[in-house]
Write a structure and sequence with these properties.
One of its GO terms (biological process) is positive regulation of nucleobase-containing compound metabolic process. InterPro entries: E2F (IPR015633), E2F_WHTH_DNA-bd_dom (IPR003316), WH-like_DNA-bd_sf (IPR036388), WH_DNA-bd_sf (IPR036390). It is found in: Nucleus. Keywords: Activator, Cell cycle, DNA-binding, Nucleus, Repressor, Transcription, Transcription regulation. This protein has about 850 residues and is of the alpha+beta class. The chain has a domain of about 180 residues: Winged helix-like DNA-binding domain superfamily/Winged helix DNA-binding domain (Arc Repressor Mutant, subunit A). About 45% of the residues lie in helices and about 5% in strands. The protein has 40 helices and eleven strands. Strands 4-6-5-11-10 form a five-stranded antiparallel β-sheet. Strands 1-3-2 form a three-stranded antiparallel β-sheet. Strands 8-7-9 form a three-stranded antiparallel β-sheet. α8 crosses α9 and α13 packs across α18. The longest helix is centred in the middle third of the chain and has 24 residues. The radius of gyration is 25 Å and the shape is globular. The chain binds a DNA duplex (15 and 15 nucleotides) through α9 and α16.
Length: about 850
DNA sequence: TGATCCCGCCAACGT
DNA sequence: ACGTTGGCGGGATCA
């Protein structure tokens, strides 16, 4: 196939495609020549020599920074140094030339990292495939992972929109958060521990136990994590089985983001990923398949320069692994900007139950253990929902707005606050709508009960701005644009704080109603993170990660740099509110019951579970597109959009009572929280934890009126009932720096800086730091040794037995403590080497 | 050899 | 019924 087509098509294509790159467009495009050859199996040389279409090349060049992987190198060579033919030692069309990594590079070269909003960068799969001379199948692989990072989103059938790295920061944050919530860190530990045990003979009981416990964790399947802006599209894509690549890719990334040395071995990753759907059965073939897939993903991620391949050498031998080289995840941005603390959030250890997790879990009761990912019945539900969503969105016709403004727009708006209203609105809409849909479709009695949304209008909410408005609290009418929300208006989102854990609870009265089941649940305190810090510290200290870098790009590769360097742009106003959606199903009592049980018990379950629902952060206005629109616009604009919002995906799924009940939101998890403020109040659980979190920002309290309104609106509470703002909410953490919070509107960069400083400060102080915290710092750490170093990994062991860990979560006092049982085992030494 | 991972069959989906 | 997506695993390459 290779040889065929080239030229003709290609340039045509180019033209079309062009839009994206600013630079490119210009030229007439010489094209003809270039395209094809290069990739043809035959020879790179040829391509190099011959064509070198200037345009493309330039593009490529600029985009490529260095990279890590050998592949990358090659790619580089090819691209950059076309002149010298020798570079290529291997000119043949060897397998490598066809590697996904290379292909990915080529693909990326076509589009700017930060496309301007103006142009819509559409991606036509067919065209791309042709141009690159690859089968479409391969393009899917690339696009799927890009999609997982929200760098592209699907518009319609053969089309995708290119967003570039604008969303990356947000996405990574979100992923990190979710990863933390899922306790990936712990899972990783678990796996390592297991291995460790294995090494020795422990096998016996201990193993079993471990395994068992481990198993319990697993499965959660969380689905695709979406970003505010892109939900729908993603959604459309989502539908299928979100099973693999996309989701897998996200999970994989999460692993990097949560692990302290930011190095993840394929083996561990595979196990964790497998674990989720099917635990224990370490089916060999399955494992193998997983690994294959991970390689695919890793190649793409490498192409994005987010990771690079390294080798970890343990006693046993050396295992392939990847090291994160992408941007540092800011703790939390946006609204949270400060809050970020997520970092601090030590969730890792603390096993607080994440509210979100819980919610999601509830959603999908999914099983306990069998292989079925979801309960069949649920699946149907889900599907139907998804379908709807899809239909709505995907309609080809539907104009998709692309990411347009995304960041830029946002940035334009001075205040985040502005977004708030929008958010609120969305939420409302979403909920109500969702409720409707649910009813309609599902007509689940149960749900209905809870959500009694009155109106079931087919066309859910026309753009009514009004919805939001009710929330008097907000300074501004929702509809209005952001303009000046001067002060910090009360942000609705509870979760925002970082570090601090929040418990979301319903007002008693409500609780009553709503939460029938879990009284106990409700108040559960969350463990905070602090403790974690300790651990992390240890590990950190102990571990030295060193990578051997190729001679070549050491500098470049250096994580530190990478972090700093690239993408910052976007950061600006990422708003982030987010919420998690949950699937309705949660309602089922069974689930609830189970949940309770588990919760009460030591949660082992909770430990590992992941949220199964879709996490859809509504948040901030979706960046760009949606966000960009002023509220008015939105309102005015098309119903379509609304639809979008409200669509199940986007929207908030009506939360059923059970979910509402007590949600603990551990750190900041914007994403998760879907429930929203609306229905819940958030209370920071621990003050001390707050300390950690550098920012303790005072959380804006949702105004009670808003809450009430919302709740009522949703039907969660009777009209008459009022939920007072709880004092708890008020609780203002002693923040070291209130300012951060308050000025959320300020420009991000500054804030970031502040945050960073704060962190440092905290550290200096000897503050506690969460793992994340440390990790975040890490980059800043002076240098990364270039020689291979040995990394020590800590394993913790729980003398008490596997469950020990989980027990942690139980603390009610809110204080975190480390479980006594947990010990860190000395450590093994690992050596990380780059290829 | 074991690590990588390309290739493309073919099922699930959408239209 | 046909086209698009994309799971999946054989088996070729690479190191």
């Amino acid at each position: 196939k290779t040889p065929l087509k080239q030229a003709a098509t290609s340039h045509a294509v180019l033209t079309e495609i062009q839009p994206d790159c600013q630079p490119l467009t210009t030229p007439p495009k010489p094209k003809e020549i270039l395209p094809a050859d290069p990739w043809t199996p035959t020879s790179n040389l040829k391509m190099l020599i011959s064509a070198a279409s200037p345009e493309i090349r330039s593009r490529e060049q600029r985009r490529e920074l260095s990279n890590t992987t050998s592949e990358v190198l090659q790619a580089k060579h090819c691209l950059q140094e076309h002149l010298s033919g020798d570079e290529y030692e291997k000119s043949q069309p060897s397998r490598k030339e066809k590697s996904l990594g290379l292909l990915c590079h080529k693909f990326l070269a076509r589009y700017p990292d930060y496309p301007s909003t103006a142009e819509n960068n559409y991606i036509c799969l067919d065209e791309v495939a042709e141009e690159l001379n690859v089968e479409r199948r391969r393009i899917y692989d690339i696009v799927n992972v890009l999609e997982s990072l929200h760098m592209v989103s699907r518009l319609a059938k053969n089309r995708y929109a290119w967003h570039g790295r604008h969303n990356l920061p947000k996405t990574l944050q979100a992923l990190k958060k979710v990863g933390e919530e899922n306790k990936y860190t712990q899972q990783i530990q678990m796996i390592k521990k297991r291995e460790y045990e294995h090494e020795f003979d422990f096998e016996g009981e201990r193993n079993e136990e471990t395994t068992r416990s481990f198993g319990s964790n697993e499965h959660s399947e969380m689905s695709f994590v979406e970003l505010p802006g892109m939900e729908f599209r993603a959604a459309s894509v989502n539908s299928r089985k979100d099973k693999s690549l996309r989701v897998m890719s996200q999970k994989f990334v999460m692993l990097f983001l949560v692990s302290t040395p930011q190095i993840v071995s394929l083996e561990v990753a595979a196990k964790i990923l497998i674990g989720e759907d099917q635990l224990e059965d370490l089916d060999k073939s399955k494992f193998k398949t997983k690994i294959r897939r991970l390689y695919d993903i890793a190649n793409v991620l490498s192409g994005l320069e987010l990771i690079k391949k390294v080798h970890v050498t343990e006693e046993r031998g050396r295992k392939p692994a990847f090291k994160w080289t992408g941007p540092e995840v800011l703790p939390n941005i946006q609204d949270t900007k400060l809050e970020t603390t997520s970092t601090s959030s030590p969730p890792p250890i603390s096993e607080s139950i994440t509210s979100k997790e819980q919610c999601s879990k509830n959603l999908f009761p999914s099983r306990g253990k069998q292989n079925f990912t979801r309960h069949p019945s649920l699946i149907k539900l889900v599907k139907s929902i998804e379908n709807d969503r899809r239909k709505i969105q995907s309609a080809p016709t539907s104009p998709v707005k692309i990411s347009p403004s995304t960041d830029q727009n946002l940035s334009a708006f001075p205040s985040k606050m502005a977004q708030v209203p929008a958010i609120a609105k969305h939420q409302l809409e979403g909920q109500s709508k969702k409720a409707k849909e649910m009813k309609t479709k599902l007509s689940r009695s149960a749900l209905e009960c809870n959500l009694s949304s009155p109106e079931v209008v087919p066309k859910p909410e026309p753009p009514r701005t009004a919805a939001p408005s009710p929330q008097s609290a907000l300074p501004q009418p929702l509809g209005a644009c952001p303009p000046s929300h001067g002060s910090v208006s009360p942000v609705i989102l509870p979760h925002t704080h970082s570090g601090v854990s929040y418990a979301i609870y319903l007002h008693p009265s409500q609780a009553h109603t709503v939460t029938t089941y879990s009284p106990s649940f409700m108040l559960q305190p969350l463990p905070c993170a602090n403790v974690t810090g300790i651990k992390s510290i240890n590990s950190k200290v102990l571990n030295k990660v060193t990578t051997e870098e190729g001679d070549n790009q050491i500098a470049t590769d250096d994580p530190t740099q990478s972090l700093t360097a690239k993408e910052r742009p976007p950061i600006k106003s990422e708003a982030s509110s987010q919420r998690c959606l949950k699937r309705p199903q949660a309602l089922q009592e069974n689930n609830l019951i189970k949940r309770f049980k588990s919760d009460e018990e030591s949660l082992d379950t909770s430990l590992t579970f992941f949220p199964s629902g879709y996490l859809i952060p509504l948040t901030q206005c979706t960046h760009g597109n949606k966000a960009g629109f002023s509220n008015k616009e939105k309102a005015g604009i098309c119903s379509l959009q609304h639809t979008t919002y409200s669509s199940p995906l986007a929207g908030v799924i009506p939360v059923t009572a059970p979910e509402l009940k007590a949600v603990n939101i551990p750190d900041i998890t914007p994403l998760n929280i879907m429930l929203s403020p609306t229905s819940i109040a958030a209370a920071p659980v621990l003050s001390n934890s707050s300390l950690n979190s550098s920012n303790t920002s005072p959380a804006p309290n949702p105004s009670s009126s808003v809450l009430n309104f919302t709740l009522q609106h949703v039907g969660l509470i009777p009209a008459g009932v009022q939920v007072p703002a709880s004092p708890v909410l008020q609780h203002v953490p002693v923040s070291s720096q209130p300012e951060n919070v308050s000025h959320s509107s300020e420009n991000v960069s500054l804030q970031e800086e502040k945050v960073r400083k704060n962190r440092l400060r905290l550290l200096d102080r000897g503050g506690l730091s969460g793992n994340n915290f440390l990790s975040s710092l890490q980059p800043s750490v002076p240098k990364e040794p270039q020689e291979p170093q040995t990394v020590t990994e800590n394993f913790f062991r729980t003398p008490g037995g596997p469950n020990t860990v989980s027990s942690l979560s139980a603390n009610s006092d809110g204080t975190d403590r480390i479980s006594q049982g947990t010990l860190y085992i000395p450590q093994r030494k690992l050596e990380v080497s780059e290829d």
